[in-house]
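Quick illustration for those who missed Monday's session on complexes.
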Amino acid sequence: MSAPSSAKPLVFVMLGPPGAGKGTQAKLLAKELDIPQISTGDLFRENIQSATPIGLKAKNFIQTGALVPDEVVLDMFFDRIKKNDCKHGYVLDGIPRTLYQADVIAEKIVPDVNFHVLCLNVEDATLIDRAEGRLVCRNCGKIYHARNSRPKESGVCDSCNGELYRRPDDAPEVVKERLRVYHEQTKPLIAYYKERGYLTAFEGDAPPDLVHAKLMRYFLDKEVSH
Ligand code: AMP
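Prediction with adenosine monophosphate bound:
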């Protein structure tokens, strides 16, 4: 299935706490609809790896579980969506995370696109467990879990043979801080989007393929594929 070429671009926001499965679900949805997944966290990690000016600005915030300042995130984000692969739409994973970011997106993007917010609800205890077990492929970004979703060969990605690693900000004390920041700064976006009629909530506790099936059913029911 692919996004329509003539209709308005299709833009999804994956909303939810850290460890809710936003990355996994955003990747599956993007693949199915043939539009890119844009993860601001991944963009920051690439910038940190390459020691770019953005990476240097973001590094300390990310290491301590704080949010990167809005201007830095938004500049990087608007640069990314200018690229040609975004012209039929994209799935956002990790942005917006503050009311200010949501307001900027509401002003500059929402009027010109077919806009949907998908929220994944997961209990805090599950989030901590998921973050503690999370393994990520350094090459393709595929996400595994040390107990629940293991790769066939330890430390090696099933899809691309890339090396699996643990994100430093998945350390327990940083996860606690990320959750605190989520409740304080990002959770208000649920009410924000509900009031504006964009939000659909899903149980994120189920296995990833079941959650994905529900998201796809929502997509087909809404006929956002035209
Ligand atoms: P993620 O991979 O989405 O969990 O993001 C990792 C980290 O990148 C977050 O804990 C923040 O420090 C930073 N980050 C990613 N997206 C944003 C955003 N939209 N606003 C502020 N900080 C962000």
